[in-house]
């Protein structure tokens, strides 16, 4: 049976809204771009670039789909004169770049107002005469401006989805949103809200971190983690573990944990079993035996727990009570006490049986 991640990648499991949640410890960009590479050839790809320059993102996208770029990266707060007003600007790309990447249009937006960005993106989608796949390289940049407006943006796009169109979005779970600075107990966390409306939620985990945690669990040790922004083994680009929650149209929810690694000769993403990426677990019994042989628990005690040779022989020659019972024939021996009263008369003698 094919892994769930492989079915989602290939489109055998349809999903209108795929949300990839990552952290600084493990990026989801590799998986997000791989999902985008499976876009059907007749789809228009709409790239919403909020934290990655379009020129850097375009070479990572495979396929010759027609593309529309929504550039929220070049001038996010309207500092330059070119887009200081509220009107979205169309920025024609160079002829060579447009021809090689098949870019039909580039629109420069400011993130000062998510509502204006919502209208501009909705207009771009409405002008398409074919199915589309819209890719957000980071929803966190929009959430940092306004959480309600970002949810309205997602709602507006989902209202324009056709049967085969879909949204692929990355969300950095450890990046604070606008509501984080003014917490309100009556409001749900933005991350939980996005996970609720997404039809497929993929949570990225670092494979080396999982391996170390599993080793501690099997040893029975809970290691105290020191605070660090990024461990030495963090953000591995060649492999990761994915915890998937997929909501089918029937209402059933499928949960599965898969992993992937990049094939060394070709660089293709290959979906594998989790333990193929995490690695073989160490032989815990062997490690425990080595520890027991090297560490003597009675070495530093104030009293002696060791037996002499004579004491050991006496212990071995002692016959324990349960061994005597096992040697008996099974007969029951009863010795009456002085207070016992025996009556030889039959208590049922008056019955006519």
TrEMBL record:
Key word Acyltransferase present: no
Family: Belongs to the ELP5 family.
GO biological process entries: tRNA wobble uridine modification
Residue ranges, compositional bias (Acidic residues): 337-353
Residues spanning the signal sequence: none
Source taxon at top rank: Eukaryota
UniProt pathway annotation: tRNA modification; 5-methoxycarbonylmethyl-2-thiouridine-tRNA biosynthesis
Key words, A-Z: Cytoplasm, Nucleus, tRNA processing
Name under which the protein is recorded: Elongator complex protein 5
GO cellular component, one term: elongator holoenzyme complex
């Amino acid at each position: 049976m094919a892994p769930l991640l492989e079915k989602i990648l290939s489109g055998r499991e349809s999903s209108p809204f795929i949300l990839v949640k990552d952290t600084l410890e493990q990026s989801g960009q590799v998986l997000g771009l791989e999902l985008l590479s499976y876009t059907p050839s007749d789809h228009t790809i709409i790239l919403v670039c909020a934290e990655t320059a379009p020129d850097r993102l375009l070479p990572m996208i495979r396929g010759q789909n027609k593309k529309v770029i929504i550039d929220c990266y070049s001038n996010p707060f309207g500092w330059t004169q070119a887009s200081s007003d509220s009107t979205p600007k169309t920025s024609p790309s160079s002829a060579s770049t447009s021809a090689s990447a098949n870019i039909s249009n580039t629109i420069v937006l400011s993130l000062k107002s998510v509502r204006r960005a919502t209208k501009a993106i909705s207009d771009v989608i409405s002008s398409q005469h074919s199915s589309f796949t819209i890719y957000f390289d980071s929803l966190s940049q929009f959430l940092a401006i306004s959480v309600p407006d970002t949810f309205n943006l997602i709602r507006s796009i989902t209202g324009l989805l056709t049967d085969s169109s879909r949204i692929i979005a990355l969300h950095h779970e450890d990046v604070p949103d606008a509501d984080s600075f003014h917490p309100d107990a009556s409001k749900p966390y933005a991350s939980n809200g996005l996970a609720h409306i997404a039809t497929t939620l993929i949570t990225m985990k670092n494979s080396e971190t999982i391996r170390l945690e599993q080793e501690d669990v099997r040893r029975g040790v809970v290691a105290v983690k020191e605070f660090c922004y990024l461990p030495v083994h963090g953000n591995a680009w060649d492999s990761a573990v994915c915890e998937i929650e997929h909501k089918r149209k029937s209402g059933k929810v499928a949960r599965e944990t898969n992993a992937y690694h990049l094939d060394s000769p070709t660089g293709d993403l290959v979906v594998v079993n989790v333990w193929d990426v995490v690695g073989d677990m160490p032989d815990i019994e062997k490690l425990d035996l080595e520890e027991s042989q090297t560490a003597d628990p009675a070495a530093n005690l104030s009293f002696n727990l060791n037996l002499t040779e004579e004491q050991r022989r006496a212990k071995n020659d002692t016959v324990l009570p349960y061994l005597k019972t096992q040697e008996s024939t099974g007969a029951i021996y009863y010795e009456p006490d002085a207070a016992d009263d025996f009556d030889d008369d039959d208590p049922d003698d008056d019955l006519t049986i």
